[in-house]
Write a structure and sequence with these properties.
InterPro entries: FAD/NAD-bd_sf, FAD/NAD-binding_dom, FAD/NAD-linked_Rdtase_dimer_sf, Pyr_nuc-diS_OxRdtase, Pyr_nucl-diS_OxRdtase_dimer, Pyr_OxRdtase_I_AS
Radius of gyration: 25 Å
CATH class of the largest domain: Alpha Beta
Structural class: alpha/beta
Helix content: 25-40%
Cofactor: FAD
Pfam families: Pyr_redox_2, Pyr_redox_dim
Keywords: Disulfide bond, FAD, Flavoprotein, NADP, Oxidoreductase, Redox-active center
Family: Belongs to the class-I pyridine nucleotide-disulfide oxidoreductase family.
Number of helices: 14
Number of domains: 3
CATH architecture of the largest domain: 3-Layer(bba) Sandwich
């Protein structure tokens, strides 16, 4: 039976695992990379990449449908199968970067098998035993299938299967009103499907309600039916349709069903007990350094049981590399991690929401807003629905949210501000090119200082003295 001795053994070739492996091997470490499924993980094959490719096609269809002032609208001719060809082409264009061939070319030993721990320093992958100085668990997560009565009797889609669907659904029912659910709902609506979203609580309930309302209003304006505050109690298949029974007795019938109610960390069968790795249903139990109860074993990304974003997995990878490869101290502080929902308009947040900031800081909190209605670029493009909102304590932002076009791009400035602990004066003093949507952030910073400058009696007295005495 083959045996390999190595410095780093990475289990999982998704975004986090690939980042660790690439960084470690290029710095001179011996690396074994183990992956039982597809290289690139969920993000490349069933998550971020295909969803954004689908959203791009849907956006193009909606642009035709809406037209523009002086440009006549037109009914788009949507070839649903060809749209899926575009999705597949985007995946294939990116795949070489994540491929086995590339990582073997970098110097990694890549093993395509399921990994199972056989001890604190060993895993078994196929016929090979790997003994390593450090392990990184980067196994990601999979769609959670809720235990709804009848779920095993109906055909359903998840993010792992919906992108393979080549026939356009007549009526797509989405169970789950989080980011995945609403992104897929809007994309399919724009591609010609009737869509109903069923959410047991509130749609986009994790987000700031003031920001989320702009998105939900847009979804409803496009014809998406939102059912909130109603749990699904039963599923059934009737005459070729899926029947969803709600808690209040109402029934919703559709041609297709998408389950988008969360994700489950993929740790099954890894025999973590043999390695002395503590874990729960939420993931591996890690400290701020991302180390497990076995100090030789780290966990990153979804496997670490925290925020489930591709960019978090990449960030975690850097923290592990600094420790395991360079021997430097590093800790994960999630306070400056941004998140974005890629609907139209987009919604992005970083740090504390208003409710969270108010609960933590009370009267010390100041909240400022800047509307896109006052942004010249937004006016020129006819996209004025939305605003920026910043939560400030003692002159420093503690959270920010943006809803509107390109919010996912615009939130980066505020992620930097929180990470670097910048003051609002740094944002106010920034020179933004004109006309850009990014000016909305500078305007929000200006809104913080405006009362202090324009409504202060002391400032007015100073100005009068300057004007009288300074030559």
């Amino acid at each position: 039976m083959p045996r390999i001795e190595t410095d780093i053994c990475v289990i999982g070739a998704g975004s986090g695992g690939l980042s660790v492996a690439a960084g470690a091997v290029q710095m001179g470490a011996r690396v074994v990379l183990i992956e039982a499924g597809e290289m690139g993980g969920d993000c490349l094959n069933a998550g971020c990449v295909p969803s954004k490719a689908l959203i791009a096609a849907a956006k193009a269809a909606e642009a035709q449908r809406r037209g523009f002032r002086g440009v006549a609208p037109a009914v788009p001719e949507v070839d649903f199968g060809a749209v899926k060809d575009h999705v597949r082409a985007v995946i294939e264009a990116i795949a070489p970067v994540d491929s086995q061939e590339r990582f073997e070319g970098l110097g990694c030993t890549v093993i395509r098998a399921f990994a199972r721990f056989s001890g604190p320093r060993e895993v078994q992958a196929g016929e090979t035993t790997i003994r390593a100085r450090r392990f990184v668990i980067a196994t990601g997560s999979r769609p959670f299938v809720p235990p709804i009565q009848g779920v095993d009797t109906v055909p359903y889609l998840t993010n792992e299967t919906i992108f393979d669907l080549r026939e356009r659904p007549q009526h797509l029912i989405v169970i789950g009103g989080g980011p995945i659910g609403v992104e897929m709902a809007q994309a399919h609506r724009r591609l010609g499907c009737a869509v109903t979203v069923v959410e047991g609580a509130s749609v986009l309930g994790r987000e700031d309600p003031e920001l989320a309302r702009v998105v939900t209003d847009a979804l409803q304006a496009e014809g998406i039916v939102l059912v909130e505050g109603q749990p699904v109690v039963r599923l059934a298949k009737t005459d070729g349709t899926v029947e969803v029974t709600l808690g209040d007795g109402r029934q919703v019938r559709g041609s297709h069903l998408l389950l988008a109610v969360g994700r489950k960390v993929a740790l099954e069968g890894m025999n973590l007990e043999a390695a002395g790795v503590a874990h729960t249903g939420k993931g591996v139990t890690v400290d701020a350094r991302l180390r497990s109860s076995n100090r030789r074993i780290f966990a990153v990304g979804d496997a670490a049981g925290g925020l489930q974003f591709t960019h978090v997995a990449g960030w975690h990878a850097g923290i592990v590399i600094r420790q395991a490869i360079l021997g430097l101290p590093a800790r994960a502080d999630p306070r400056a991690v941004p998140r974005a929902t890629y609907t139209d308009p987009e919604l992005a947040q970083v740090g504390l929401t208003e409710a969270e900031a108010r609960a933590l800081h009370g009267e010390a909190l100041t909240v400022v807003r800047a509307s896109l209605a006052h942004n010249d670029r937004a006016q020129a493009e006819g996209k004025t629905a939305g605003f920026a909102k910043v939560m400030i304590v003692k002159g420093r932002p503690v959270g920010a949210g943006i809803v509107g076009p390109q919010a996912g791009e615009l939130i980066g400035l505020w992620a930097l501000a929180l990470s670097a602990r910048l003051k609002m004066s740094a944002i106010a003093g920034m020179i933004a090119p004109y006309p850009t949507l990014g000016e909305v952030s500078k305007r929000a910073a200006g809104a913080y200082f405006a009362p202090r400058l324009f409504e202060s009696a002391a400032v007015k007295r100073l100005v009068r003295l300057v004007q009288r005495w300074v030559p």
